[in-house]
Design brief:
This protein is an all-alpha fold and 204 residues long. Helix 5 packs across helix 10.
């Protein structure tokens, strides 16, 4: 649905969307570099190779609608087709459907996956380094600037953009999750698209 809708948008609107996610992509690159430098070895051994961790277990994966939008915006047609083919061939199992022998198939893995560190990883890397622990805390703070709707945030805006286009998805948690809706109401957080009155989920 996301791929289809974006394919119909004019180039100027696509450029606008890519500009809106630019700072988020920079944030993700910084997190990825930090993870690669400090956690790659232990996570590969603990989670991927030995399979003793549930980090990439199917039941632990939460995907936001914005995760899908950002990946479709930035991925090649081949990368998107690969994700769809994997879904069509899915037969269940313990692991996340997007995990193969080379790791995650997403260009930018869901933010919940990227920001999750098991206790073993945190104890091995962060417990004895105040500097690294501080850097990770700052990344967690920055994450909320895109995902936590106590103010207008990118993930809410991207959901609103598609709602305004007449689309709906159970992954639109910032418009559907009772907890997040209460949080938005408590803080008076609202996102409006330029020149468009936003249609909230469940309202006409």
């Amino acid at each position: 649905m996301v791929r289809q809708y974006l394919s119909y948008l004019p180039a100027s609107r696509l450029r606008w969307l890519k500009q809106r996610i630019k700072s988020y992509v920079q944030f993700r690159k910084a997190v990825n570099s930090f993870q690669e430098e400090h956690f790659s070895d232990i996570c590969s051994q603990k989670c991927f190779t030995s399979r003793t961790s549930a980090c990439c277990g199917r039941e632990g994966i939460i995907t936001f609608f914005a995760d899908v939008v950002i990946n479709v915006l930035l991925s090649t047609e081949k990368q998107i087709s690969t994700l769809l083919e994997i879904l069509e061939r899915d037969t269940g199992g313990f692991n996340c459907v997007y995990l193969n022998e080379n790791g995650c198939l997403w260009l930018w893995k869901p933010i919940v996956c990227e920001m999750f560190l098991c206790d073993a990883a945190k104890n091995s890397v962060l417990a004895d380094s105040e500097s690294l622990a501080s850097q990770w805390a700052e990344f967690r703070r920055r994450e909320r600037m895109y995902t936590w709707p106590t103010r207008p945030v990118l993930f809410d805006e991207l959901e609103g953009f598609f709602l305004n286009g007449g689309f709906d998805s159970p992954l639109m948690y910032l418009h559907k999750s009772p907890g997040l809706l209460r949080l938005k109401a408590r803080h008076g957080s609202e996102v409006r698209q330029p020149g468009v009155v936003r249609r909230e989920a469940g309202k006409s």
